[in-house]
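Example: DUF2530 domain-containing protein.
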Amino acid sequence: MSTDGSSQPPAASGSSANPRAAYHRVKKTPELPAADAVRLRMTPIAVAGTLVWTVALVLTQLFREPLADSGREWWGACALTGVIVGLLGTAAMVVADRRHFGRDRRS
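Written out as structure tokens, the predicted fold is:
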């Protein structure tokens, strides 16, 4: 309740109906220019991740008996899933990189 007895807040200078204007009235930091986008190919990152999962899969197959004895036989299935998802992600990143950088690999 305001000091004059009404339940409406007092009218402020400027319209508070516009959220953008209200934001700019209370904003304390100056506008900073947006950073330029980093041009980074994602395919090598996806390949590296898939390679890590492949190494994990090979290791789980080499140590299958000790893992089964300790109740961790599910690690092999987890590593296989990582390889499959990594292959799908690598394919998606190849397509995205071609769209973003063009078909020429020298750009």
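The mean pLDDT is 83.
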